[in-house]
Amino acid sequence: MNSIKLKIPFFNRRSFETKEAVKVHRLVKEVRLKGGRRLRILDEVSFKVPVGSKVAIIGPSGCGKTALLKVISTIYIPDYGEVKVFDLDIVKDAGKIRRKISFVSPSLDFHKKLTLDETLKFFAKVQGSDTEPAYSFLEFIKMNGLRERPLEGFSEGQKAAVRLAIGLMKRPKLLLLDEPTANLDVARKEMVIEYLQRKVEGATIMMVDHDPKVVSRLCDQVILMKAGGKVIRSCEAKSLLKGFPFKYQFNIKVYSKAQFSRESLEKLGYPFQLAGNVVRFLLSSKEEVKDLTEKLMGKRGLLSFEVSYVNMEDVYYWINQQLEEGVGAEAVANVGIVQTARRGGKA
Known about the structure:
It is a single chain. The chain folds into 2 domains: 20-237, 3-Layer(aba) Sandwich (Rossmann fold); 242-330, 2-Layer Sandwich (Alpha-Beta Plaits). It is an alpha/beta fold. A hairpin with a 3-residue loop joins strand 10 and strand 11 (230-236). Helix 4 crosses helix 5 (156-168). The chain is globular. The strands form 4 sheets. A 6-stranded mixed β-sheet has the order 7-8-9-4-10-11, with helices on both faces. A 4-stranded antiparallel β-sheet has the order 3-2-5-6. The chain has a 4-stranded antiparallel β-sheet with strand order 13-14-12-15. The chain has helices spanning 65-72, 94-98, 116-127, 132-140, 156-168, 186-198, 212-218, 237-242, 262-266, 286-296, 312-324, 329-333; strands at residues 4-7, 20-32, 38-50, 54-58, 80-85, 88-89, 101-104, 174-178, 204-208, 221-226, 230-236, 248-254, 272-275, 278-283, 302-309, 336-339.
């Protein structure tokens, strides 16, 4: 069985000799649960982000990606460790940091009756910023014609674009983006990517996004996190995603797991993950989608199936699986990713 080994380097250490946009050292963040028990959501996190870098944070749901952005944005205060933004301490210098950064979050809500124009002017006044960058962005993505419309009629994708427009008002040196392209249609997502590539020059970007295409086109580095709020490693985004061979998720919902044993699923010939009564296959082409569909047709106990594009969680789980099947400590130390052969020896 042939295998392809892909080495992915860590952040270039020389870049750390220059001024960092973000420096995190042994960060710990805990939250208090009912009954007084404390849950650690970020555990001994350390990394550095050079000025001007475009960094994606990836990992499974609940691993602390958004919590990490909230700490860097000064919303959360660390329990232990040190976090600096442009050499400013996030606890002692929170006010100065907030003037240099923007945090774009899907949790930001709007007054439904206000128009887009009124909303932007409101946030500009609150932030002490200018509306011009927001209007420039909205014009670029062809939303300027909506300025007089109330936001209650906006789609979720349009609201996501408004949140990003608000974040751009301050002309931030550091832009923290939490799922900025979620719910955007394909055409508008392309416009947002192009705008961030061409118009936000010099700014450092840290983002959480579930679309591998967005990450590969916008980001030069990736920070990998795992469950428990730990950072595994940092690596080059393009090299990482270039080695990822899949394009589609093929999700099937089964009536009972007993009717689809692991052995029977393995015989179908494609990588899969199990989550309750849902089986997710990872496929590389439309031909594989067609092949798997034909294999599943007529099988008893199959409730439904759905095909969609892969996301960054799929990338994360695939990386972990390859490392587990690799050569142990050496593979981890070198951030080696092994693409094992599939379907009769074809890599």
